[in-house]
Automatic annotation (TrEMBL):
It comes from Metallosphaera sedula (strain ATCC 51363 / DSM 5348 / JCM 9185 / NBRC 15509 / TH2). GO terms for molecular function: oxidoreductase activity. This is Sulfide-quinone oxidoreductase. SUPFAM superfamilies: FAD/NAD(P)-binding domain (SSF51905). Its EC number is 1.8.5.-. Residues 3-143, 211-324 form the FAD/NAD(P)-binding domain. It comes from the Archaea. Keywords: Oxidoreductase.
Amino acid sequence: MTKVLVLGGRFGGLTAAYNAKRLLGSKAEVKLMNQDRFTYFRPALPHVAIGVRDVEELRIDLASAMPERGISFAQGKVEKIDAESRIVYYKKPDGGMGEEEYDYLMVGIGAHLGTELIKGWDQFGYSVCEPEFAVKLRDRLKDFKGGHITIGSGPFYQGKNPKPKVPENFVPQADSACEGPVFEMSLMLHGYFTRKGMWDKVKITVYSPGEYLSDLSPASRKAVAEIYKGLGIELVHNFRLKELREKEIVDEKGNKLESDLSILLPPYTGNPALKASTKDLVDDGGFIPTDLNMQSIKYDNIYAVGDSNALTVPKLGYLAVQTGRIAAQHLAKRLGVNTKVESYYPTIVCVADNPLEGYAVSVKDDTWYGGQVSVAQPAAVNHLKKELFTKYFMWTKGDMVLEKFLGSW
Ligand SMILES: Cc1cc2nc3c(=O)[nH]c(=O)nc-3n(C[C@H](O)[C@H](O)[C@H](O)COP(=O)(O)OP(=O)(O)OC[C@H]3O[C@@H](n4cnc5c(N)ncnc54)[C@H](O)[C@@H]3O)c2cc1C
């Protein structure tokens, strides 16, 4: 039987696997491999840091969720893909090595969080990108007695060559891989410290490796700058983080910002497993260039979805889900299923939540790609949308079949 192997068990991989199985049924065996048995709803990890959610509420057990839908699951850390011989090499949980053959491969192992690129990370770095980081930050915030807090993202090491085979305006060059969580966290901290009666003891600085939120329209950026001004949050552009110290952070040019607590979205680089794979599968940054059907431009039996795909800029869950759906539809059509293949169209869709103050800013923007849509709306109902979206993800175990219609992150 045709074997479809999906690598990665978060937005991109889960969407690809669920949709492939739904469309292909008994025409193919679908197997998903992820390095961990459990996967977490990442957009609510900032909520863990401010103590409004527990990590356990956001956890899905792939070892039971996959078989429930007729998908087999293997826990394994992909070491490399040999695209010529169609074999994935991986490390088993017991440390032994394994090999997995495939007919079709869907790669959704995301990008790499390059914490090793920031000096002082181990001693002074805090983040919300993975569950263990969010818990560590929650504990630090509980004890924080006041002082300077910096929040920002490290540089994005985006690939440049070869380019995806898509309209050029779909893949802008970005200084940061994703600044939505930085914006969200800055709002949340206002709520957090206001509730504790400590806002006057805290000085927050938000920094960006380029122009902050450059993926939004000038009007939306201006609105954000106004919000920050109103809250007394300082905004620093073009600060490419290099080092964290006990009381300050330093950029590549030697500029410094005072910082008693340094929260960051680490630099994004290509996944090491992809960098170690067949050379012409990836671009010079370690991301997989594809066409609009998410098919590798070199290996037509390999699809890339989500953050692993060179096409998705910024690295956004909304785009991961869209690319996962398209890859599954395209593969199913190739294998004889009468289905429509959606057209990829990039848009920034996200919701920056501030639960402790009961509102969220809902963003929809395609101006970076040459479109006309630019919405950035703070409203109480947007907080409710984020709540519902979290519940929807957990309820469906990441199979967000209605996301296209309800889509509001
Ligand atoms: C704190 C935070 C909040 C966010 N909030 C939002 C939001 O509100 N809205 C939005 O649209 N986007 C949001 N994003 C972006 C979004 O989370 C990512 O774009 C999305 O997770 C990408 O999904 P993915 O499946 O492509 O990759 P990932 O989420 O990175 O998932 C990759 C999966 O593959 C596994 N994996 C990695 N390497 C290997 C390997 N070698 N072998 C096997 N498995 C491996 C990982 O464990 C993981 O399960 C947020 C990001 C962060 C960091």
